[in-house]
Amino acid sequence: MAKLSKMSQSNYSPETLMMGYGYKPELSEGAVKCPVFQTSTFVFKTAEEGKAFFEMAHGKPGNEGREMGLIYSRINNPDMEILEERLKLWDGGEAAAAFSSGMSAIATSLVSFLKPGDVLLFSNPIYGGTHKFIHFMLRNWGVTPIGFNAGDSKEKIIDMIRQENAGDALRMIYVETPANPTNDLIDIGMCRDIAEHFSNAEKKVYVAVDNTYMGPLWAHPLKHGADIVLYSATKYIGGHSDLIAGAAVGSREIIKTIKKSRTVFGTMIDPHTSWLLMRSLETLKIRMEAAAQNAAVIAEYLSNHPKVTKVYYLGYTEKNNPAQADLVKKQYLSFGAMLSFDVYGGEKEAFQFLNNLKHIKLAVSLGGTESLAEHPFSMTHADVPTEEKNRLGLTENMIRLSVGIEHHRDLIDDIEQALKTI
Ligand SMILES: Cc1ncc(COP(=O)(O)O)c(C=O)c1O
After folding, report:
1. Ligand 1 atom 8: the closest Cα is on which residue?
2. Nearest atom within ligand 1 for CA of residue 106
3. Cα separations in angstroms, 405 against 236, 315, 411
4. 2: pLDDT confidence band, cut at 50, 70 and 90?
5. What is the enclosing helix (H) or strand (E) of 249?
6. Measuring CA to CA, which residue among 11, 32, 21 is closest to residue 85?
7. Angle formed by the axes of helices 284-303 and 408-420, to 10°?
8. Is the pLDDT of residue 5 over 60?
9. What pLDDT score does 99 carry?
C-alpha cells in the first residue's frame, strides 16, 4: 500500500515515528491505531485497476509513477507494509521486508542472491538453524559454504579463499556478530573490504549481517558496509516471547529482489503478527535500554562471584579479548543485554544452577521482557560438533542469560540462590 502518511523520517527519531509512521487514520475510519487487516485478498475497483496492479507487481514497464494497490496478502497487506516502513527506520535502510520467522528471512534472503556454483563465506559460530541451512540446504543446492572464525584477520581470510580457489565464485559473506553465545565480534567493515576485494564489474559480493543480538537499537550494520541486515524479530523487535517473525533491511533494490522470492516462497509475515510487532516497536527503545542497564549490573555481580569463572559480556571485551576492544566502540552503541558465564565445574554444576532458578525461566530464545537462561552446549548449540565447540570456546559449564526488564535486585537474588546450590 503506497498511501503512507507524510510524516518525514528526517525530522523525528525512530522511537517517535513508531507511534504512527506510515499510517493514515482517514483510510481506516479515523482509528488512532492501524487496525488488523485480517484478509487474504483485496477488492479491485475495476478490472483495469486489477490488471495494472498485477503489471506493477511484475515490474512491467508503462506504469511508472502510478500508485501500486493492494492485491493479495502474500504480496502486500497494509499491516505488513506499514510495519516494514517502520522497521527500516532503525537501521537507516531504504526498505525492509517482513517475514514469518527469522529463519525464513535468512533463507529467503540468501537464496535470492545465491545460485548453484556460488561460494558463501560465513562466520563461526552462528545460530544452529542458520548453521543447518548453510551446511545442508545450501550445499544440496550446489552452494559451497566456507567458514571463518571470529578474530581471523582480513589477510588470513583472503588467503584462505585464494587457497580454496573460491575467489571467482564468492558471492556473499554472511556474519553473525556478536557471536552467540561467546559474544566474540566480527568486524563488518573488514567483511566489506573482503567483499570489495572479490567483487568486479560482473559480480558484486554481498555482505549480510544477522543483527538479532544487538539490533535494531545498538548496532546498525548498513552504516559499516553491510548490504543486508537480517533479524529474528522473534527476539528484541517482538520482545515479549509471544510471536515468531523475521525481517530483512537494505537498499530499495536489494529488498525488491528479496520480496520477489518472498512472494514465490510465501514466507511473508501475517497481518496479526505484523500488528503485534508494530505494537512492540513502540516500546522497543525503552525495553532494550532497561534490559541493557540490568545486564550491566548482573555482569558486575557475576564477575565478582567466586563460583563464576568467566563472564562473556561486551563490557568486558577489554579484559577478555583486548584485540577486539576498539571494535566494540566502533560497531556498537551499547554492551547489550546478552551475556554468558562459566560456573565453577562442568555440565553437572551448570544444570544444577539452571534447575534451581526460581524466577528466571529455563528456556532458549532471547530478547524478551523476561529473563531466560539456557545451556548452549547441550541446547542451542547441541548440533555443533564437540570439537568445534571446544575450538570456539563454548564450554560445558557455560550458561547463557538473556537479561530482561525485571528489577535487577530480583534477578540477582535468583542468580545468587541458584549459585548457592552448586
Ligand atoms: C541470532 C539468531 N538468528 C536467527 C534466529 C532464527 O530466528 P527464528 O527463531 O525467529 O526463526 C535465531 C533464533 O534463535 C537467532 O538467535
Report:
1. 102
2. 4
3. 12, 18, 10
4. very low
5. strand 246-250
6. 21
7. 40
8. no
9. 98
pLDDT over 90 at 385, yes or no: no
**End-to-end alpha-carbon separation of the chain, Å?**
57
Q: Are strands 170-176 and 119-124 parallel, antiparallel or unpaired?
A: parallel
> CB under 8 Å to 322, separation ≥6 — which residues?
none
Domains and CATH numbers, the chain: 84-263 (3.40.640.10), 284-420 (3.90.1150.10)
Q: Which three cell numbers stand for residue 142?
A: 550446489
The answer to whether residue 395 scores a pLDDT higher than 50 is: yes
Q: What is the largest CA-CA distance in the chain?
A: 74
What CA–CA distance (Å, rounded) separates 99 from 119? 25
Positive or negative CA dihedral for 260, 261, 265, 271?
Answer: negative
- What's phi and psi for 130, nearest 5 deg? -70, -40
pLDDT at 10: 63
232 CA to middle of ligand 1, Å?
Answer: 5
Q: Mean pLDDT across the stretch 72-100?
A: 98
Number of residues written out for the chain: 422
How confident is the prediction for the chain on average, in pLDDT? Answer: 95
C-alpha 123 – ligand 1 centre gap (Å): 15
Q: CB of 354 closer than 6 A to ligand 1?
A: no
Whether the CB-CB separation of 346 and 397 falls below 8 Å is answered with: yes
Which is the closest atom of ligand 1 to the Cα of 380?
A: 14
Whether the per-residue pLDDT at 7 is higher than 80: the answer is no
Closest-CA residue, ligand 1 atom 10, reads 102
pLDDT at 392: 85
Average pLDDT over residues 4-14: 66
